[in-house]
Write a structure and sequence with these properties.
The chain contains 6 helices and 6 strands. By secondary structure, the chain is of the alpha+beta class. Helix 3 packs across helix 6.
């Protein structure tokens, strides 16, 4: 994926930067043209990276990484999707999440203060509306060799957060 990003950035630079700035503008005009080109490139790269992240997320949903599935269990969490009636009862800015139906005593989840009945709505920067979302976030944390992962839960209609220690 890194090679793809590098190629996209290179193409963006090649197509966005004028081949040669004409001498009509003088040096100030050339500098302004280049500054504008750089702003356009940055915006393009930002959009491309956002699209790549969405693509990676959809690809990871096609086949859940074994490491992430194992990590959910190792963290001491048992999750289930919210029912339609539970979704309708959410009184927050969140419109999805995973209900925590089990927390293993002494686990990283228990140590972090996660309780049965909490609704997991986010891990790091990702929403957790499906098991695949959770697996993706955990797999990303494992790949990036993070020691902990910030989580967001709904408890009594209030959003709260904590840090989940990742065990290896």
């Amino acid at each position: 994926m890194t090679r793809l990003v590098s190629t996209i950035v290179l193409l963006a630079v090649l197509f966005a930067v004028p081949a040669s700035s004409s001498a009509h503008h003088g040096s100030d005009g050339v500098a302004n043209d280049h500054r504008q080109s750089i702003r356009e490139i940055k915006a393009l790269v930002k959009e491309l990276l956002r699209r790549i992240e969405r693509l990676e997320a959809s690809l990871s949903q096609a086949e859940a990484p074994v490491e992430a599935v194992t990590s959910i269990k190792r963290l001491g969490l048992e999750l289930k999707p919210l029912s339609q009636s539970e979704l309708g009862q959410l009184v927050s800015r969140h419109d999805r999440g995973m209900k925590i139906v089990g927390v293993e005593a002494g686990s990283a989840a228990a140590e972090s203060g996660i309780r049965v009945g909490d609704i997991l709505v986010g891990l790091h920067i990702w929403e957790t509306g499906t098991r695949e979302n959770v697996e993706y976030a955990l797999n990303k944390a494992i790949t990036d060799k993070l020691n902990s992962l910030k989580f967001y839960i709904l408890r009594d209609s209030q959003t709260t957060y904590g840090h989940l220690r990742l065990t290896r």
